[in-house]
């Protein structure tokens, strides 16, 4: 029975030009319905496939996705966390290996992937997550509660430029929106562009708007000697880009071998506030 329903949907996906039709069928079955009681599997599968048929990305159809060691709720229009961003989490955890009580800021918290993964591994840390999208704050709050981390993350909705800072943070992490506006159409898959908010990708005319804004704001947010961790694209790590930020020293660069979009190289930088 399941084979014939899968064949039916494969045919529909092929006919409608849905990306990765075979993988879509298999992932929706495996992640979406395989653990349900037998009588619920086919009706639920039909429901998920009908969402995929209108080009909804797979994680949004299923409503959850794996990131680092956690399963997180994901929901449009909030960015689906990328596999390469796990590397940013690993780099931070290596640098922050001791369990001293630390406070950190996640700028553009999205579904909470970075902040919650760090909190989960460092029981004495406290986080603040900021995002301009109210849906992101709501989703992070939900994910934090699911994983028992809600009492260690403070959430603030708004533009980082308006964040009312009182105490300085020990470090800051950010996976910034950094695609050049004119490249949005080429670099973002059609299904994501349709369903994920533009604020998750658009870095302005040269892709650097959010990165520059975060560095500018971090002068008033991060303690001297504290780190600023950024995920960047290859061309954004050039020396001339950092020159105007003489308040920081760059201490580490590394890049990821895996990427969501295999033709792009993703870099991670640690800067230190002087
Ligand atoms: C590339 S997404 C990263 C989401 C999440 N941290 C992750 O890695 O999956 C960037 C996030 O920054 C948020 N954002 C964009 N501009 C912002 C601003 N000025 N202030 C606060 N958040 C902003 C977007 O809404 C989006 O959720």
Task: Give the topology, please.
Blueprint (H helix, E strand, L loop, with lengths): L1 H15 L4 H13 L4 H16 L4 H5 L1 E4 L2 E4 L11 H11 L7 E5 L5 H9 L4 E6 L2 H13 L6 E5 L11 E6 L9 H4 L2 H6 L13 H10 L3 E12 L5 H4 L5 E9 L9 E8 L1
Parallel strand pairs: 3-4, 3-6, 4-5, 6-7
Antiparallel strand pairs: 1-2, 7-9, 8-9
Helix pairs in contact: 1-2, 1-3, 2-3, 5-6
The site of S-adenosylmethionine (SAM) has 21 residues, from helix 6 and strand 4.
Task: Write a brief caption for the model.
With 274 residues, the chain is an alpha/beta fold.
Strand order of the largest sheet: 5-4-3-6-7-9-8
Overall structural domain count:
2
Main sheet makeup: 7 strands, mixed
Query: Please, what is the CATH homologous superfamily of the largest domain?
Result: Vaccinia Virus protein VP39
Identify every distinct bound molecule in the structure, by name, code or SMILES.
Answer: S-adenosylmethionine
Report on the structure:
It is a single chain. The chain has eleven helices and nine strands. With 274 residues, the protein is of the alpha/beta class. The protein has two domains: 2-54; 65-273, Rossmann fold (3-Layer(aba) Sandwich). The strands form two sheets. It has a seven-stranded mixed beta sheet with strand order 5-4-3-6-7-9-8, sandwiched between helices. The protein is globular. The mean pLDDT is 92. Bound molecules: S-adenosylmethionine (SAM). The site of S-adenosylmethionine has 21 residues, from helix 6 and strand 4.
